Amino acid sequence: MVLTAGQPGNDFGEVIPTVVAGRKSERNGQMNGASTIRAVVFDMDGVLSDSMVSSRSEAVPGAVELVGACKTAGLKVAIVSSADRIKIDVTLNKIGLPPEQWDAIVTADDAVQKKPAPDIYLAAAHKLGTLPGQCVVIEGAPGGVQAAKAAGMHCVAVAQSFPEEQLQAADLVKLKISEISLDDLAAFGVGGSGNVVALRGSALEGSRGAGNGSGGRGPWGLWATLGLALVIGAVFVLAQIVAGILAGFGVMATGGAEALRDPKQLESNGLFLALTTCGAAPAAIVATCLFAWLRRGMSIRDYLRLKAVPARVLFRWCLVLLALAVLSDGLTSLLGRPIVPEVVVTSYRTAWFPPLLWLAVVVLAPLNEEIFFRGFIFAGISRSRMGGWGAILLTSVLWAVIHVQYDWYGVATIFASGLLLGYARLRTNSIIPTIAMHALMNLVTTIQVATLLRIVGGSD
Question: Exposed, middle or buried: residue 419 (CB in 10 Å: 0-12, 13-18, 19+)?
Fold first, then answer.
C-alpha cells in the first residue's frame, strides 16, 4: 500500500426514530404544535420524474420550477425514493435536479420498513434536522401518502400516476405538480425564516431555472470547475514554494544539505515533505472553500458535501478500504514487489520529527485532497453529462497522476483506491467517508513503514 500525499510541487445509516407504541400521539402533537414549515420532501418516481409511466426519466412539467421556488423561499428540500442511490443520482441528473442541489437524499437503505410505514420520512426529517410537523411531503402514491401522514407530516398529493380518489388521505390533492403553488405550502405554516412565505403563485414563474443549476443554484459547470481547479492548484504550488524555502533551512539544520542539491533526494525527504504539506495544504483548502462559497445559492458544506453520515456507514466503508488494502498488499507480495515503496521508507527515515510527518500525511493531505478532488471537482463533473460515474473515473485519474514520486505500479494502486473513494462519495453523497478512508489508508502505510524500520533497526 502507498501513501497518498501528492508529490511536493505537484500535488494540489442513518439514525431513524424508532416507531413504537405510544409515539404516535407524540408525532401528532408535533404536527399540530409546529406552526413553522421548514422543509419540503419530494417523492421522486411519479412526482418529479415520469419513470413510473415511461421507459425514460424526464422531469414532470413544473417539478423543477417548484423545487427552485422552495429553495428561493428559504425552505430545505429533500428527495425520498425507494430506489438505490446510484439510480437516484442518475435520474436527478437527467431531470435537471442534480444531487448537489438537495439538502438530504433518503433511500430505502435509510429505513427499516418500506412505505406505508413512516420510517423513510422520519429518516428524511432526521437528515434535515427538522421535526416531522415542520415538513410538507409531495407524494404521488397512496402508500406514500399513508407513510407521510403516519410520520406526522403534512402532505400534498399529485394525481399524476394514481386517480385522485385514491389520494384523499392527503391534506391537499392536486392533479399535477405544476398546479402546486407556494400559496399551498404557506397554508400549512410559515417559511424557514419565520416570516409568512410571501412568494405567491406568480413566484413560480419568477423562479424558473432556479432548480436547474442556473442562477448559482448548483455547483460550477464542468469547464468552470476545471478552470478554477487550475487556480487552486496554482495557489497550492505557490504556497509550496514559500513553504519549501523555509523548509530548506530546516533540512540544512538537520544535516540534509545534500538533498537540497538533488531534486530526487528532496522529493523523498520526509522533513521537506512534512513542512511543505503543512504549509500548502491549508492554503489550498481555503482557496477551494472560497470558490465553493462564491457559487451563490449553496453553502460550502452543501457544495463540498461535508455532510455527516451514520457511524455504522462510516465503519462499513472503512472496512471495505481495509479489505482493499489487504488485497493490494497480497497482490504486491505475489508480484515480488516491496509492500512499502522505497520512497516511503526514505521519507520516514529522513522525517527527523516523525509526528510532523504523521500530521502531514494522515491528517492534512487527506483533508486537502478529498475536499479538492472528491468535493470540489467531483461536484462539477457529476453535474455535467459525464455524471457520477464519469466523476469517479476522472477524479481518480487526476488524483493518481499527481503522485509522480511513485512508479507506474504505485500510481496504478492509487488509481484503484481513487475508484473506491469515488464510489463511496457517490453512494453516500458525502466526502466525510472518503476523508476517513483516505486518512486510514495513509495511517496503515505509515504504521507499516514505522514497524518495518523498527524491526530492521533502520530508523535514524
Answer: middle
